[in-house]
Amino acid sequence: PLFEVAGHPIIWHCLSSVARVPNKQIQEVYIIGYYDESVFRDFIKDSAKEFPAITIKYLREYEALGTAGGLYHFRDAILKGRPERLFVLNADVCCSFPLDEMLKLFNDKDAEAVILGTRVSDEAATNFGCIVSDAHTRRVLHYVEKPESRISNLINCGVYLFSTEAIFPSIRSAIKRRLDRPSRLVSYPSSDNLENSFILPDDDDD
Q1: Cβ partners under 8 Å of residue 98, min gap 6
Q2: 113 Cβ contact partners less than 8 Å away, ≥ 6 residues apart
Q3: What is the structure's pLDDT at 185?
Q4: Based on the number of CB atoms within 10 Å of its own CB, is 128 exposed (0-12), middle (13-18) or buried (19 or more)?
Q5: Is 195 in a helix, a strand, or coil?
Q6: pLDDT tens digits for range 29-73
Q7: What positions does the domain Nucleotidyl transferase occupy (predicted)?
Q8: Which CATH number is associated with domain 4-170?
Q9: How far apart are CA 61 and CA 91, in angstroms?
Q10: Is the Cβ–Cβ distance between 71 and 167 less than 8 Å?
Q11: Is residue 159 within 8 Å of residue 131, measured between CB atoms?
């Protein structure tokens, strides 16, 4: 996250974009990660001076929890100020961050979530999460993480806007489903030599 891009740590570009959202619509930023607190101490101190209108805090995970897991683990801290909406920005993303435009779309479409996407080549698309959306309404119809075949060249940029009323219950439901329904994927530990089993030997009689 502190790797420099264009003279600043990559995460600085996230903060700079947040600070540019008009009318102080974003007042708190939580950096969630598994790094030691000392890694971000100086960066947060300097950023607090550069972006005085934003409160910046680091929340350290007890283990790497993933995006949804980290959000849900720290939900009480995130919801303390009773926000109605929540931006989630992956710290390894560096782009124009059209956050104000995402807010406008969120309101215009009465959405529960907005995901930032970008078009790439068909060959590159399978390396990312792919979004299939309605061309007119922009509603997401389908999403596949790194599909084996092409389904769309619109990929997930790792920038999201959520309704807080929707995102945390959704994560809770997903966790409950996973706990209540054990995995149905099982392994078969074969003792056979699979290479010999499925490769036909040469016919010595020919």
Answers
A1: 116
A2: 160, 161, 162, 163, 166, 167
A3: 58
A4: buried
A5: helix
A6: 999 999 999 999 999 999 999 999 999 999 999 999 999 999 999
A7: 1-168
A8: 3.90.550.10
A9: 15
A10: yes
A11: no
